[in-house]
């Protein structure tokens, strides 16, 4: 079987490719050839349209070749963030990554995101990630009684934190961070982005509480400005810039 073979289909002439996915797997209960918890690679060959996504290929494998393959997905449109995984050594959303953009002439490598415990195949335990997010108190803490209508902001006030409102909690930024891989205490980029969204919100009165949390040894000062987080974000958030702005607020006392 050749790695790529383009054949016109009957549906609008969309090319069909022979694709190989090489998937890193782990079954906590073990399989016939592998001990419980043992990592191993398995290759799957399938026919796919050039416009298919990695998620489509994973579905086809699960539905037609191996029903035991485990991965997360929900909306399939880049909104829920549940299908974050490493694809060709980069953190991506499987639902937004087209097969034709991955040089399908070679096997496409698919593995779980790094730095979180693997539960099975491409599924990781997200609890440590969400635990860090909860620590920065990701909710509005306004002052005074509740208003009769919404709390108003100017366009400039909204723009101050607009970028970090785009976060979908996919963990792609945090699990692309080399500090997070090696330091079990670091909050990680996403928790800092989540704090940024409220620290610079003019309606919020919990800024200094959050800044005190991020000034801790597990906070922003562990960031080494590698930019991995910014490159990994599927929503295009300037993660490193947000971390830098929080460092500036801590250094100057200005928000």
> Globular, elongated, flat, extended or rod-shaped: what is the shape?
elongated
* CATH homologous superfamily caption of the largest domain: Alpha-helical ferredoxin
Please give the CATH class of the largest domain: Mainly Alpha
How large is the share of residues in beta strands? 15-25%
| Main sheet attributes: strand count, strand direction, barrel closure | 6 strands, mixed
- How large is the count of helical segments? 8
What does this structure look like?
- With 255 residues, the protein is an alpha+beta fold.
- The protein has 2 domains: 7-124, Ubiquitin-like (UB roll) (Roll); 127-252, Orthogonal Bundle (Fumarate Reductase Iron-sulfur Protein, Chain B, domain 2), CATH 1.10.1060.
- 27% of the residues lie in helices and 16% in strands.
- It has helices at residues 54-64, 127-135, 155-159, 178-182, 189-199, 207-214, 228-232, 239-252; strands at 7-8, 15-26, 39-49, 84-87, 90-93, 108-111, 118-120, 123-124.
- The strands form 2 sheets. Strands 1, 2, 3, 4, 5 and 6 form a 6-stranded mixed β-sheet that branches. The chain has a two-stranded antiparallel ribbon with strand order 7-8.
- α5 packs antiparallel against α6 and α5 crosses α8.
- The longest helix has 14 residues, at 239-252.
Helix-strand layout with pairing:
Layout: E1 7-8, E2 15-26, E3 39-49, H1 54-64, E4 84-87, E5 90-93, E6 108-111, E7 118-120, E8 123-124, H2 127-135, H3 155-159, H4 178-182, H5 189-199, H6 207-214, H7 228-232, H8 239-252
Parallel strand pairs: 2-6
Antiparallel strand pairs: 1-2, 2-3, 4-5, 4-6, 7-8
């Amino acid at each position: 079987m050749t790695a790529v073979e383009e054949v016109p289909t009957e549906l609008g002439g969309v090319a069909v490719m022979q694709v190989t996915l090489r998937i890193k797997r782990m079954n906590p209960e073990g399989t016939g050839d592998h001990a419980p918890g043992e990592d191993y690679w398995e290759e799957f060959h399938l026919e796919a349209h050039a416009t298919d996504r990695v998620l489509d290929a994973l579905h086809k494998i699960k539905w037609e070749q191996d029903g035991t393959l485990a991965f997360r997905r929900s909306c399939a449109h880049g909104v829920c963030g549940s299908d974050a995984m490493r694809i060709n050594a980069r953190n991506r959303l499987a639902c937004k990554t087209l097969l034709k953009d991955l040089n399908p002439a070679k096997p496409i490598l698919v593995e779980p995101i790094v730095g979180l415990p693997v539960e099975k195949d491409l599924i990781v335990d997200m609890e440590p990630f969400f635990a860090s997010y909860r620590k920065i108190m990701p909710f509005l803490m306004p002052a005074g009684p509740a208003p009769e209508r919404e709390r108003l902001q100017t366009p400039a006030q909204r723009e101050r934190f607009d970028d970090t409102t785009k976060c979908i909690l996919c963990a792609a930024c945090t699990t692309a961070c080399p500090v997070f891989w090696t330091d079990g205490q670091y909050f990680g980029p996403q928790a800092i982005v989540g704090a940024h969204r409220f620290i610079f919100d003019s309606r919020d009165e919990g800024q200094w509480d959050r800044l005190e949390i991020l000034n801790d040894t597990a906070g922003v000062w562990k960031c080494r400005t590698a930019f991995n987080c910014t490159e990994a974000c599927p929503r295009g958030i300037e993660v490193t810039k947000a971390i830098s702005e929080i460092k500036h607020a801590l250094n100057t006392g200005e928000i």
